Amino acid sequence: MRLLLSLFFLSLFVHSGQQPKNSLFPYEDIKTELSQRDQQYIESLPPQVVYDWVQVPENYSAPNDEKIKVFYEHRLPKKTNKNKRPICFFYGGPGLDARASIPTLLAMTKEHGILIIHQRGTGLSSPLPQIKSEPDILRLKQYLSRAIVEDAELIRKKLFAQQKWIVTGQSFGSLIIQRYLTLYPQSLYSAHAHGFAATSLPTPFAEARIRKHKEVLSQYLKKYPKDQKRLELIALHCAKHNFSPVDNEEIIISGRHAFSFAGMIFLSAPDYWKDLSQFLTDVCPKNRVNHKRLTHWINNFYFNKSFIYLGAEQDALNVVFNRHEAYVTKSGQSLSQYYQLIIDKLHAEGIDTQTWPMGEEALMHFCIDSPIHNLADTINLGKADPLLPKAIAASLNKHPDLKFHLYAGEIDSVAPPETFQELKDTCGDRLQLKILPGGHDSFLSPLFWKAVYRYAEEEPAP
């Protein structure tokens, strides 16, 4: 009897999150369509989480064609009256799994509550389309900021009707917020964006990243001087070896900067410098590279479908994003050509990236060889869809009550603060720009969230 009672009470907590009773996709009906990991995630949601899937068109310009599902989870505040306005958070990417960001985010927001949309193609939303031909690459344009804003607006209306909400976001999420400002400013009470700022064309973003990376790498090596030798040994080792996922030899990462992407991620967040140094010590003990450890680490970092999978659909999405929204290459110009021009320009100034022990993402791009990556790099994507400062400024000027706060990390080599000034100058006093101590992870600073919660807890206008 005691065992039966235990099983009964346990069953009460197997599926704790709340799903609307009128959902188009009741969890029990679609459970078998989900992976074991997705099922475990749903069944581990705490009781104060309201979740659901909404059906949306893959292409909003053709709403009657292919449909996909987008998942959201609304983590309610501990006290029901804590927030007077809902808050939505857009995480980085594109193509990253929401579950990679949620644990650190919840540490900052659990008292106040937050709504997180699993951006189309990620997390528990419908996956990215499989890439088999050029038309499939073109479909990836429907998985960028414009469509994600449309999804978010649909969810806002579903949950909050005409109530305005507060949007927050980091990195790619910052770009989504700035796109939101141009598309649906009337739906926003305030916007708080960290880690990306729109620039005019041609964008200085890629060049600024390489210059900032040089500066940050120098700061890191001053703090951990012994890692200079370790990084150089790893770079030399990578120049002599290829790395592929265990189940797909068509994807090859090679060259002395094969480790660069991982290095860029760690260097951009000073709180992780200690972890990077420990990793380098483990991989290169006694000034000798442990090939097995390095291979294991690269496989877990680069070929982890829960984080990033270089050479596959997620990587192709990033290439399309860079060419179509962030860097915006000229018609007929591949991303590789675009990067090479920048590297050649810097080399003429005496900045020789090939001598660096650890490079920036632009250098990592040259290390990837795979059918999908190469197709995404060279295919004609058609008319680009850049996000321009003048469009953001125009929208803010038409909506004088909308507050826009923009944040940059002081030593952020992913989104250098030097690139934020143009947007500030264009928007004038309609934009509040703040440079935070730290790097790309400084959105976790209490300084960022203090402003968010101030707006959330203000009394709504009568």
TrEMBL record:
Source species, domain of life: Bacteria
Keyword entries, A-Z: Hydrolase
Keyword set includes Hydrolase: yes
GO molecular function ontology, one term from the record: hydrolase activity
Location of the AB hydrolase-1 domain: 86-444
InterPro entries: AB_hydrolase_1, AB_hydrolase_fold, Pro_iminopeptidase
Official protein name in the record: Proline iminopeptidase
Species assigned in the record: Lentisphaera profundi
